Each structure stands twice: as structure tokens, then as C-alpha cells.
Amino acid sequence: xxxSFFGDxxxxxxxxxxxxxARDRRPPSEQLSANLIDxxxxxxxxxxxxxxxxxASEILARYGELTSGSRIAFFESLASKFGPDHKxxxxxIETWRxxxxxxxxxxxxxxxxxxxxxxxxxxxxxxxxxxxxxRMREHLLDALGRRDDLTAVDRDFVALFSSWxxxxxxxxxxxxxxxxxxxxERIIRYEAVHRINxxxxxxxxxxxxxxxxxxxFHPALVDDPLIFVEVxxxxxxxxxxxxxxxxxxQPLDSRETTTAVFYSISNCQRGLAGVSFGNFLIKQVAEExxxxxxxxxxxxxxxxxxxxxAWLRRELSAENSKAFKPEDRDALTQVxxxxxxxxxxxxxxxxxLRAAAWYFLYAKTRNGAPIDPVxxxxxxxxxxxxxxxxxxxxxENGLGQSHGLMVNYLYELADIEKNHEAFAQQRTVVASSQxxxxxxxxxxxxxxxxx
Length: 451
What we know:
This protein is α+β, with helices and mostly antiparallel strands. The chain has three domains: about 1-165, Malonyl-CoA decarboxylase, oligemerization domain (Butyryl-CoA Dehydrogenase, subunit A, domain 3, Up-down Bundle); about 170-300, Aminopeptidase, CATH 3.40.630.180; about 305-450, Aminopeptidase. Helices cover about 50% and strands about 10% of the residues. The protein has 20 helices and ten strands. The strands form three sheets. The chain has a five-stranded mixed β-sheet, with helices on both faces. Strands 6-8-7 form a three-stranded antiparallel β-sheet. The radius of gyration is 26 Å and the shape is globular. Mean pLDDT is about 90; it is low at about 20-35 and about 445-450.
């Protein structure tokens, strides 16, 4: 009701603003330009609140009509014409040099802010402005792959979104069979890890007493989840995804539940990529479940390994890869052939697990972080790489991206902070001995993991 009230109030302000703009009797040369960039300049120049809201609405409406080429031209203008005011910044710096105080330092900070940040803040005043700006960033991300000159614009979007989607504004809601159908439809559509095949499949995941689904929502995106996690309550740490997704038997008695398994985490808003709230989601969901099941002793994931197959393919193409033993090459090459899992997959198990252990422990990005994005997420949250599971995901996607491998990350509550610090400070991959003993540490690096 509050969201509806404020939305209606903003719409009323916008309508009044349009009326004021329509009554503008100034000469045509001073009236609002049809050019989108000119409208943005007028929005920044500052008029009354009602006309400002109306102008923001007009800009977003016109932006929504642009083709992809015109959008890129708009982003180019944001990059070139709406950066910091250099003259103003020079004056602020000289003022600070003449008298370095907190006040003059604040003046430098304010002058250094790109004008487009204030433009985005004013556009956000329009009814539905936040959702429109999230969609706008989706378009920007599409262009970034071939336009490095737009990176500064993207940084400003991320900076503002990180503030607007601060954890304090997010609301955790449990998703169950009584949740409105419009939200359930979005859960089906947004599932990014294990596809949901219709309503019956969704009900198997959220309705039984030993299954849970939770999502974060934001007041500005009513009934549109930001991120959600699916949870299975089990006796043991699972080693495969199929029993979790297809189970139709008797739900597990709450007295037998020892383990909470986070088996799917899906980000729903592509325009919010780079804005981190997944770690808060896991921690709050763990607290929610712990209150209901005080005898739970373990919190683990059953996670995909999205980059393993591509990485292994690159290593096999190298003549002297250090990622596997020479005698393992033939076995590893076999997993590149179609239908390899229908033959004698157990003969390939040990070589593939050894290569996977290397992938997790030693394959790094340029800044020294694990190359696997899911590993970066969970290790950064303080989890421990607990186990690599053989033939755990036999779906087409699982076989294609990871040769069927999945992994368990263990969230040991007493060690989360220590593990997080080790990863943040030294990029340490905290792993169980079950993982580290699969592969011998390379001579050039004896500190890459903690057993």
C-alpha cells in the first residue's frame, strides 16, 4: 500500500509538471528541445520539482523508443558531455590547496563527481525510474564488450546502484506455493542454474516441507525479485543434483534434518551485475532456517563449475600444461568426445578429478583470484571448498560446461570470518584435505591452499 501511495504521488507530481511545461509561453528557442541530450541538460539545469519529475519521465520514455545504435550514441554523450566539470574541479583543488580543510576537501569531492551521476539521480525521480535505469544499464552492458570508452559510464551506474540497493533496503521473502503467481512465473523465468520445467517442477522445489526458496526484493521493484536461492534440507552432504530436483518420495522428517543445501542461486536483474547482495542472502537465509531447525549442523552448497570444460580444453591444447600429468592427457582428451559418459567413465574419474583440483587451487585470474566465478563468490563469503563430485550433473548443460562435475562449499560458521580474510588478503583457496590431496602442490607455489 505504501509503495502504491508513493507511486501515485510521484505520478501526480509528474502530471502537474507536464501541465506546467505545456503552459510554458516562452519563445520556441527556449522551449524543451526534442533532442534527448538537450533534455538531459535541461534536467540538470534545475527547474521546479514537478517539472523535473515530468522531464525525467519524458527522457526515460524517449530513451525507451531508441534503437540500439541510438542508445550507444546516447551513452557516448553521457561519457563525453556529462563527466566532471573540469573548470569547477580546478577551482575546487586550488581552493583546497590554499586552505586544506574538511570543507574544502568536500568541495573537491563534490566537484570531482561526474555530472551524469546527478543526471541519473534526477532520472530516478520519475515514476518507475529505478526499473527503467536498471534496464538502461542492461543496454549499456551489451555495448561494453566492444566499447571500452563507456566503462566510466558503467562505473557510475554501479556506484549509484550499490547505494540504492544497499542491504538495508532489501526485504527477504520466502517463496512458496501461496506466493502470487506473477512472482512464481518470474522465478521460473529467472532460474539460471537448473532450469524449472513448468509449474509441477516448481512445486517440487518450493512446496515440500524439506524444500525452501527465498528471495530478496527492493521497494522500487515491486514483486520483481533481485536474487533468489533454492534450499534442500537433507541428512547428508549431497554429491549429485538429480536426486534433489526429481525427488517425489516422502519428505524428510524435521528431526532427521542435519544439512541445509544451497543448490541454486540465481541473479534476476542483469542490469544489477556487479552489485553484490548474494552473500547477504545466504547468511540471512541460514539464520532463517536455523531458527526453524535448531539441530542443523551443516550449511553447504551443491554448486556448478561453469568454466571447467572450457579451461580444460585450453590446457589440453597447450603442449606442456602443468595442470595435469602427461600420463593423464589421453584420459582427459576422451572427455572431449561425444557421449564419453556412456562408455567406461570410471576409468576417467581420477584424471578428471586431479585436473579439477588443479583448476580450483591454482588456475587464477590476472589479479590472483580463482578463475572460477562461483568459487570466487563462495570463497569470498568465507566458505571452504569441501568436495569435488564426479558425474554430479548429467544434464546437457552440466556435461557441456563442467563434464558433469559439481562441488560442495561448506559454510562452517566458526571459520567464515577467518576464511574470508584469508581469501581477501592473500587470495588463499581454503580447501579440505579431500581436495588438496588430489593434486601435488607445484614447486613454484606452496601457499596456494590451506588443508
